[in-house]
C-alpha cells in the first residue's frame, strides 16, 4: 500500500515528490466522492480528530471540519477564546487534556511558528499543521498546486508568481517549497519592504514590478497584506500599495495574455485584487475552496492509514 513518507504534516519542506503525487491522486478520488449525491464515506468512522485553532479562521477551519465529517470521523472543535489558555494553561497541558479523550489526529493552527513541530515531539497523535505563525501553511499550498494542475496541467517548467506580502505569508513559503518540488519556476513580487532578505536562496526570482511579473507568469497567486502581523507600516498608504500591486483589468490588458489567478483568502477586494478579476474566468478561487476539502480529506485519510499500518 502506498503511504506517506512522514508521520505528521508539519510542512511541505518535509515532503517529497512521491508524497505530493500520492496526496493529489487520493484527492482526485475524494473529489469524486464529494460531488456525488451521497457525499460521505465510512473510511474514518473509528477515528477521533480534534481541531485546535488558536488563531481566528473561517475557510481553513470549515474546510477541515467538512473534510473530517465527509470521512465519518468524530470531530472535536477547540477555540482558544474562552478556553483555559486564557487562564495561563500551557499548550502542552491543553493538548494532553484533549488527548485524554482518546484523540487520534490533531489539526492545529497557532500564532507561534514551530508549535506543530513542538507538539509532534511531545505527543503520539498525528499532527496536521493548519498554519503556524509566519512559518508554513502546507494544506493551502497543496490545494493551490492541485487546483493549478487541474487548470493548466503539469507544473514542470511553468512560471508561477506569488504577489504581495511575502514577508508575513506562511502561504508563500509553503507554495515556494511545493512549486519547487513540482518543477515550476517561482517568482515573488511585492514592495521591497515585504520581500524577505535572502529569499533567492529558496530558488525564487525577485521582481518589484507587477507588470513585468505578470508578463513572465502562467499563473499568479495574489496574497493579502497581513496587517495583523505588522508592528509598523511597511509602505506609505494602502492606496499607493493598490496602485502598484493590485491585480485589475487595466494591468491585465497591458500584458495581452491569459494568466490564471489564485488567491488563498480572505480577499481584500480593491486592495490586492479587484472584484472584476476575482470574479472573472481567469480566477480559480472558488475551485481552490472546493479542492481544499478534497485535499484535506486525502491528507487526513493518508495519515490515518499510516497510523493503522504502525499498529500492524
Task: Describe the 3D structure.
This protein has 312 residues and is α/β, with parallel strands linked by helices. It folds into two domains: 12-136 and 290-311, Rossmann fold, CATH 3.40.50.1370; 138-288, Rossmann fold, CATH 3.40.50. Helices cover 40% and strands 15% of the residues. The protein has helices at residues 17-34, 59-70, 91-99, 115-120, 138-152, 170-181, 210-216, 238-245, 249-255, 275-278, 285-311; strands spanning 48-53, 74-79, 105-110, 126-132, 159-163, 185-189, 204-207, 219-222, 260-262. It has a five-stranded parallel β-sheet. The protein has a four-stranded parallel β-sheet with strand order 2-1-3-4. Helix 5 crosses helix 11 (285-311). The longest helix has 27 residues, at 285-311. It is globular.
Name given to the CATH homologous superfamily of the largest domain: Aspartate/ornithine carbamoyltransferase
Reported by name, the CATH topology of the largest domain is Rossmann fold
Q: Sketch the topology as an H/E string, one letter per element.
A: HEHEHEHEHEHEEHEHHEHH
How would you classify the helix and strand content by structural class? alpha/beta
Task: Looking at this protein, list some descriptive labels.
312 residues; alpha/beta; Rossmann fold; 2 domains; 5-stranded parallel β-sheet; 4-stranded parallel β-sheet; 11 helices; 40% helix; globular
Amino acid at each position: 500500500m502506498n503511504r506517506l513518507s512522514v508521520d505528521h504534516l508539519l510542512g511541505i519542506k518535509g515532503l517529497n515528490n512521491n508524497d505530493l503525487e500520492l496526496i493529489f491522486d487520493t484527492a482526485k478520488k475524494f473529489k469524486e466522492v464529494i460531488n456525488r449525491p451521497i457525499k460521505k464515506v465510512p473510511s474514518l468512522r473509528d477515528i477521533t480528530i480534534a481541531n485546535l485553532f488558536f488563531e481566528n479562521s473561517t475557510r481553513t477551519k470549515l474546510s477541515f471540519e467538512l473534510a473530517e465529517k465527509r470521512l465519518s470521523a468524530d470531530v472535536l472543535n477547540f477555540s482558544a477564546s474562552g478556553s483555559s489558555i486564557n487562564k495561563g494553561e500551557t499548550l502542552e497541558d491543553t493538548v494532553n487534556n484533549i488527548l485524554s479523550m482518546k484523540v487520534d489526529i490533531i489539526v492545529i493552527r497557532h500564532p507561534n511558528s514551530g508549535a506543530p513541530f513542538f507538539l509532534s515531539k511531545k505527543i503520539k497523535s498525528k499532527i496536521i499543521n493548519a498554519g503556524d505563525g509566519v512559518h508554513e501553511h502546507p494544506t493551502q499550498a497543496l490545494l493551490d498546486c492541485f487546483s493549478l494542475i487541474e487548470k493548466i496541467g503539469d507544473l514542470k517548467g511553468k512560471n508561477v508568481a506569488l504577489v504581495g506580502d511575502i514577508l508575513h505569508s506562511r502561504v508563500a513559503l509553503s507554495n515556494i517549497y511545493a512549486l519547487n518540488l513540482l518543477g515550476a519556476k517561482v517568482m515573488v513580487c511585492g514592495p521591497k519592504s515585504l520581500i524577505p532578505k535572502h529569499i533567492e536562496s529558496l530558488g525564487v526570482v525577485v521582481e518589484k514590478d507587477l507588470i513585468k511579473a505578470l508578463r513572465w507568469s502562467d499563473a499568479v497567486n495574489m496574497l493579502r497584506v497581513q496587517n495583523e502581523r505588522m508592528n509598523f507600516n511597511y509602505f506609505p498608504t494602502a492606496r499607493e500599495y493598490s496602485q502598484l500591486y493590485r491585480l485589475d483589468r487595466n494591468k491585465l490588458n497591458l500584458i495581452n495574455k491569459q494568466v490564471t489567478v489564485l488567491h488563498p483568502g480572505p480577499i481584500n477586494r480593491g486592495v490586492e485584487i479587484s472584484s472584476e478579476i476575482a470574479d472573472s474566468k481567469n480566477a480559480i478561487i472558488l475551485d481552490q475552496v472546493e479542492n481544499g476539502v478534497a485535499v484535506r480529506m486525502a491528507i487526513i485519510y493518508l495519515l490515518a492509514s499510516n497510523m493503522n499500518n504502525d499498529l500492524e
